[in-house]
Design a protein that fits this description.
three-stranded antiparallel beta sheet; Heat-inducible transcription repressor HrcA (chains A, B); about 20% strand; transcription (chains A, B); homodimer; alpha+beta; about 325 residues; WH-like_DNA-bd_sf (chains A, B); DNA-binding
DNA sequence: GTTAGCACTTGGGCATGTCGAGTGCTAAAC
DNA sequence: GTTTAGCACTCGACATGCCCAAGTGCTAAC
């Protein structure tokens, strides 16, 4: 019983099963693939693979299907990332060019990726922790309500309405703005919290309370831009692969809607030597996604933010990985410096 | 055959069917409701109702289920909007208080509404057409790239990066900003387009090109804040009511994702005398939503923006309408002046 | 206008039987 | 030692036939 052939059999099982959604038997295998041995031999190999926990039989006299572990081995050792078709490359290129607004780019990107893969696509907003303060704006909305706007050099804008706790004139507010902006322009968002007290201390005593409130508002903004967000597209694809989620897609939709879950998941995925991160089935520490897999990769300057797809474990990993990687690369290029 | 009793029969059919999801027959009807007549009489009434197209039988020897038209009559003439339970009122109140950031309020609101109704909840961002220009900010990102920020008195912020087409210093940009802001502060967003050319005309000839580009950017921002957005929650509820969407929920998810569809739908729904807007099944001019109903109502100062839910036609309209209305009222109060 | 009674329709559930795919095992062949 | 052929066995998928309960529509009587 040769080891290479066993892997070959696993590969064939994964490919056939992904293609047909039906448990694949020994006979069908020798017919569809020219393995050069008889079905009986394959049966022996399959028994060994089952012994190792790589495949399993849904019931006694059915073919075998890959387990999570089987997919894992397949992804790690067997499959090669398929190149995209020229048509797909063109689609990516044409769809992502001609727009420089961040929201817009990300929106187009997820839609594209979901169409390309027929799965649910997700993309994290780029991290801003190493972004710098570009501009600060205070706008008086009502006697004590101030709209605080924080603009980063990345082009990201965060805003919030806060109650300053004391009446404040336009002039006083402008003065505070100048004070804050003068001290903080160019400060990394990540260090904003440390720098704020010093600024507050320089404010006139009569404005101290307001200055304090504004500082808290700014800190919250810097915080909330580090606390990430994501965009998503293609949830309708889940319905198509209804059959692949035995329990119904409810829990999956819940997970997707609870963005915190997805964001943590994406953040914690480790990339392999190819730069791809793949989590399969129960490897994902979230019950609702026990039948799902996530394929993701980093993008942007330091590859800190992730883009990826979520689909059933029974998925065409090579093609999907190729699409994710290609889209991530184009996205990096567009957002690039 | 009395007309009032026929309506009563329709009411009973709708209520039972919504409750049990099973076609309801004449015998079960007289048992569950004390109608004071025999099943044979009910059969006659049902035949008449079917004649009028208000109910239909899935197959020969099954009970009847309401048609879209039947639901419509039920909603318009028979049902009374149920009052919410005190617990629900409390839930609404406690969940929506303690936050003044628009995004946050809307996010909490949809989540709440989707939980309350067990349906998909959607809410339009408030219209800004009658909002006024509060503040304008230009930030130089790169030699020719300017981030244009438009802040309305409603607290809404819109931003975009534009290419001004010529190199511009910080000082020049500040000058342009003062010029724009001086002329436009307080202008309704809806009239921004008309006012812009005059401002551009006052710019120094050397900055004319940039001023023009900035004006176009501002106009686009005013436009894009009228072009509305929406927030959504509770899509997982669709999976629960899987059975009610015979074809699968795919098309429904597609419609929801294609926000343009939902926004048009919400905008075009007319409210009835109670202030509620209900679209049932095929009344919705979108094939994917043929099995769905939308219950919505306006909120905010002029009730221009809508909040509502989407679910299967087989839904508990009275309770749902009550929840939507209650949430809309609380939301109006919170956003109110 | 209402009721009782009855013949008729029909989908759903159930038991039964058959078929085919697929397995595991053993013994022989290479 | 590995591969192959053969065979008994298992089990789900499918078709068939059957019966039953629910429900209808109609007619005639109240």
């Amino acid at each position: 019983m040769s080891e290479p052939r066993k892997l070959e059999v696993l590969r064939a099982i994964v490919e056939d099963y992904v293609h047909s959604r039906e448990p694949v038997g020994s006979k069908a295998l020798v017919e569809r693939h020219h393995l050069g041995v008889s079905s009986a031999t394959i049966r022996n190999d399959m028994a060994a693979l089952e012994e190792e926990g790589l495949i399993t039989a849904p019931h006694t006299s059915a073919g075998r299907i890959p387990t999570d572990k089987g997919y894992r081995l397949f992804v790690d050792q067997i499959s090669a990332v398929k190149p995209l078709s020229p048509a797909e490359r063109r689609a990516i290129q044409s769809l992502l060019e001609g727009s420089d607004d961040l929201d817009d780019v990300l929106d187009r990107t997820v839609r594209l990726l979901s169409q390309l893969t027929n799965q649910v696509a997700v993309v994290q907003y780029p991290h801003l922790s190493r972004a710098l303060v570009r501009h600060i704006e205070f706008v008086l909305l009502a006697p004590r309500k101030v709209l605080v706007v924080l603009i980063a050099n990345s082009g990201k804008v965060e805003q919030r309405v806060i109650d300053v706790g004391q009446d404040l004139g336009d002039d006083a507010l402008a003065g505070l703005r100048a004070r804050f902006l003068g001290s903080l322009a160019g400060t990394p968002l990540s260090q904003l919290a440390q720098s704020l007290p010093a600024v507050v201390a320089t404010a006139a005593p009569g404005q101290r309370q307001a200055a304090q409130a504004l500082a808290i508002g700014l800190e919250a903004l810097a915080q909330s831009s580090r606390e990430e967000r994501m965009v998503m597209a293609g949830t309708a694809n889940l319905a198509r692969s209804n059959v692949d989620f035995p329990l119904s897609i409810g829990p999956v939709l819940e997970a997707l809607e609870e963005q915190v879950v997805m964001l943590r998941l994406l953040s914690e995925m480790a990339q392999d030597h190819r730069g791809m991160a793949v989590s399969i089935g129960r490897e994902i520490p979230y019950d609702g996604l026990a039948e799902a897999s996530v394929v993701a990769t980093g993008y942007g300057p330091d590859s800190a933010a992730k883009i990826g797809i979520l689909g059933p474990t029974r998925m065409d990993y090579p093609t999907t990985m190729a699409a994710v990687r290609a889209v991530a690369r184009y996205l990096s290029r567009i957002l690039g410096p």
